TrEMBL record:
<feature type="transmembrane region" description="Helical">
    <location>
        <begin position="46"/>
        <end position="68"/>
    </location>
</feature>
<dbReference type="Pfam" id="PF00335">
    <property type="entry name" value="Tetraspanin"/>
</dbReference>
<dbReference type="GO" id="GO:1903169">
    <property type="term" value="P:regulation of calcium ion transmembrane transport"/>
</dbReference>
<keyword id="KW-0472">Membrane</keyword>
<dbReference type="InterPro" id="IPR018499">
    <property type="entry name" value="Tetraspanin/Peripherin"/>
</dbReference>
<dbReference type="GO" id="GO:0005886">
    <property type="term" value="C:plasma membrane"/>
</dbReference>
<feature type="transmembrane region" description="Helical">
    <location>
        <begin position="168"/>
        <end position="188"/>
    </location>
</feature>
<dbReference type="GO" id="GO:0005246">
    <property type="term" value="F:calcium channel regulator activity"/>
</dbReference>
<keyword id="KW-0812">Transmembrane</keyword>
<feature type="transmembrane region" description="Helical">
    <location>
        <begin position="12"/>
        <end position="40"/>
    </location>
</feature>
<keyword id="KW-1133">Transmembrane helix</keyword>
<protein>
    <submittedName>
        <fullName>Tetraspanin-13</fullName>
    </submittedName>
</protein>
<feature type="transmembrane region" description="Helical">
    <location>
        <begin position="75"/>
        <end position="100"/>
    </location>
</feature>
């Protein structure tokens, strides 16, 4: 039986926003866990993850309140914001899946050169020094520096995982982008349904 009633639309919209709330809290928790265990020291990376988590939490909160109260204005803004997020996320996800190996290398090199803290984390965790070349006078936190064995370059090591990570990120992004367009459709339909418990003449 197709879900087309007022209560069913409301419950589906609430469930979708609860899912977004859990994902947002998970993102914030991962960032805090990374800092707590010393896996991530880059404030820029942590700040971006936390900002995305808070933004998603606020969107979910607006959608949840709008769904529970059947608030026309909140539902309208929620629908518009969700549509914009869908467009951006769908584009980024497709770009992640479409990058070839050369483009991945260029993207990684740009990120390597622009984030000193993340670069130090990578060198320490992957036990490598330098991206495509390493100057002995440069600072490297990898444990291999203290040993007699030469350190490996980071580019080949990162390159092994870059394709898998981008495909994973692109796939997750596509999945959530389709849940967002589902949320837009549910919100549009829910806004135009009358609450059977309310006064029909009060519906705008």
């Amino acid at each position: 039986m197709v879900c087309g009633g007022f209560a069913c639309s409301k419950n589906c919209l609430c469930a979708l926003n609860l899912l977004y709330t859990l994902v947002s809290l998970l993102l914030i928790g991962i960032a805090a866990w990374g800092i707590g265990f010393g896996l991530i020291s880059s404030l820029r990376v942590v700040g971006v993850v936390i900002a995305v988590g808070i933004f998603l939490f606020l969107i979910a909160l607006v959608g949840l309140i709008g769904a529970v109260k059947h608030h026309q204005v909140l539902l309208f803004f929620y629908m518009i914001i969700l549509l914009l997020v869908f467009i951006v996320q769908f584009s980024v996800s497709c770009a992640c899946l479409a990058l070839n190996q050369e483009q991945q290398g260029q993207l990684l090199e740009v990120g390597w050169n622009n984030t000193a803290s993340a670069r130090n984390d990578i060198q320490r965790n992957l036990n490598c020094c330098g991206f495509r070349s390493f100057n002995p006078n440069d600072t490297c936190l990898a444990s291999c520096v203290k040993s007699s064995h030469p350190c490996s370059l980071c580019a080949p090591i990162i390159g092994k995982y870059a394709g898998e990570v981008l495909r994973f990120v692109g796939g997750i992004g596509l999945f959530f982008s389709f849940t967002e367009i589902l949320g837009v459709w549910l919100t549009y339909r829910y806004r135009n349904q009358k609450d059977p418990r309310a006064n029909p003449s009060a519906f705008l």
